[in-house]
Amino acid sequence: MRHPAILARFIIWKAKNIEHRSFLLILSVIIGIISGLLAVTLKTTVHYIEVFFTKSSTSEIGGENYYYLFYPLLGIFITVVFIRTFIKEDISHGITRILYSISRRRSIMKLHNIYSSIIACTFTGGFGGSVGMEAPIVSTGAAVGSNVGQLFRLDFKTTTLLVACGATGAMAGIFGAPIAALIFSLEVLMLDLTLTSIVPLLMASVTGSLVAKLLLTDKALFHFSLKDTFDPMHLPFYIGLGVIAGLVSVYFTRMNMAIEARFDQLIFIFPPLYGEGYMAMKAVLSGSGSDLLNNSLFHDYKDNLWLLLGFLTLVLIFKVIATSITTGTGGIGGIFAPTLFMGGITGYIFARLINYFEWVKLSESNFALVGMAGLIAGVIHAPLTAIFLIAEITDGYELFAPLMVTSSISYLTIMFYEPHSIYTKRLAKRGELLTHHKDKAVLSHMSVAELITRDATTISHEATLGDLVQVIANSKRNIIPVLGDNNTLLGIVPLDNIRQIMFNQDMYETTMVSSLMVLPPNYVSSDEPMQDVLKKFEDSEEWSLPVIDEGEYKGFLLKTTIFSAYRKKLIEFSDD
After folding, report:
1. Confidence band (pLDDT; 50, 70, 90) for 132?
2. Do 515 and 465 fall within a single domain?
3. Are residues 414 and 457 in the same domain?
4. Poorest-confidence range of 25-39, 259-273, 329-343, 414-428?
5. For burial by CB atoms within 10 Å, which of 286, 325, 507, 575 has the most?
6. What does the DSSP assignment read for 510-528?
7. Which of 1-5, 67-71, 314-318 has the lowest mean pLDDT?
8. Same domain, residue pair 368 and 392
9. What are phi and psi of 157, to 5 degrees?
10. 465: CATH
11. Position 225 in a domain
12. For residue 273, what pLDDT band results from cuts at 50, 70 and 90?
């Protein structure tokens, strides 16, 4: 009991001596430091485990490395055992879970989320699983922010901001890109940009990035160098790359959502599928794309251009399959790095193919980098994040114009086919997605179950008009639900429908309630999204609808109750 008492005294002291905004800045720096340290921990651990296994199993160039098949499967197995034995809760889809926590759980994340994703991703990624580390570390940073908010008993709005600070600090730490991390929180986590939020986010982002740069070596950081300058005459080709990147994004999104097959032997045939793909990207951007054939079944044909392009096209097709099956079978990791990998391969194939026909000489490394941005813009619906991420990890804005063009066109292309990103699609289907649209954001936080009115007096379908009149005399509502066996709603009796006969005592014993009831114009369920509920109210033009769960009557939902709750939530969401 001592620690809660000390904390309570500190909270009281803080309220008297430290301004809320100042305290928020202090917390944002602390969260940024912790998130940065956790990012360094995960990045370093995965790096050394991966190096240990690859070097200990290295065969000569030109030989097939069987560990490409065995180690990822072992990593997934260990991950599944760890989760089922110690965590006993699904911790996959890290970014989606952050969005769900914000929209449905008032930004509350469990304490184990601070360490569970890191440990699980260490096994999956360190053993060569075809996933990235971004989602687990961003989820971890968000959990740090959430638990700090819970510790100091902060309100929903402030806790949500701290969740974003943790995610931003972690993202900045894993990529060393503070501006892109900040924009990521605004684009992907749907956080509103206000004066209250921008400074804490900046502090957390810069802090997380600095911690990572101080502790990580250049080899461990996600960093590439530009080899060529941007030629404005190549802009039409960047436009074409944008369309292709958008279509590849559609493929990635739909395949990732649909795949349920087993991993099988894809990594053994295509070594670039091993891990997150960072080393493969290094080879492409250094002009050594043919080195990707090393240790594969096709290494003897590495100088054949068409075989190389065919090989890379197959890698492009199978990378999303490998990533999806890795996560689908229990592995923990993200799709951010695989998306970058696929974008880089897309840009490289595009430029190499154009160069073959000698129409023009394109920079293959530049197109690979811009292709990365195109896939990020398409898959996660975050064009600004894509633009600034590539600009920051290349230490300059030389490619800013083509990044803007390709990212924008890729985003517009996928929006034609997929209005929701890979992170938000599941939540959007359930009406649980928090967006920048203030009305929809408020509605996503409202639950039918919390607004049910249960004071409506019910009547049996076997009752008479006389019984109904007595019920009406004691009822506060002008609609009487008629129930059958097992609390089943059979119909309703609107008071307006019986006004002309309710005082005719000759009909009291001869008229049955079942002959007076009518079917309700519609009904709702307690777990139905509020946007769908409002649509039903609009279509039916009613002010109250019954709530039915699996055939059982639960009560009524009143439009006035919804409006009252909406006003309270809107005040809670409003800016300071």
Report:
1. confident
2. yes
3. no
4. 259-273
5. 325
6. T-BGGGT-B--S--B-TTS
7. 1-5
8. yes
9. -60, -45
10. 3.10.580.10
11. no
12. very low
Predicted confidence (pLDDT) per residue in 503-518, tens digit: 888 888 888 888 888 8
Q: What length does the chain have?
A: 576
Q: CA angle at residue 316 from 310 to 317, to 5 degrees?
A: 95
72 and 133 in a single domain? The answer is yes
Same-domain status, 541 and 479: yes
Instruction: Please work out, in degrees rounded to the nearest 5, the angle formed at the alpha carbon of residue 50 by the alpha carbons of 44 and 52.
Output: 100
CA distance 416 to 435: 19
Which of 165-179, 276-290, 424-438 is least confident? 276-290
Name the residue among 376, 318, 385 with its Cα closest to residue 347.
Answer: 376
Res 284 pLDDT > 70: no
In a domain, 362, yes or no: yes
Can you tell me the mean pLDDT for 470-482?
Answer: 83
Do residues 117 and 40 lie in contact, with contact meaning Cβ atoms separated by under 8 Å? no
First to last CA, the chain: 34
**What is the CATH classification number for the domain harbouring 109?**
1.10.3080.10
Same-domain check for residues 14 and 135: yes
The C-alpha atoms of residue 128 and residue 273 are separated, in whole angstroms, by 9
- The total domain count for the chain is 3
What share of the chain has pLDDT > 70, as a percent?
84
CA-to-CA separations, 374 to 152, 175, 314, 378, in angstroms, rounded: 41, 17, 19, 6
DSSP state of 424: T
Strand ranges across the sheet with 489-494:
459-460, 479-483, 489-494
Report which listed range, 257-266, 292-301, 461-470, is most confident. 461-470
How does pLDDT run across 200-227, given as a tens digit for each residue?
Answer: 999 999 999 999 889 876 665 667 777 7
Say whether both 419 and 448 belong to one domain: no
Cα angle 417-423-424, degrees, rounded to a multiple of 5: 70
Cα 172 to Cα 119, 161, 237: the distances in Å are 20, 16, 31
Asked if the structure places residue 223 within a domain, the reply is no
Domain assignment of residue 364, yes or no: yes
Q: For residues 176 and 283, state if they share a domain.
A: no
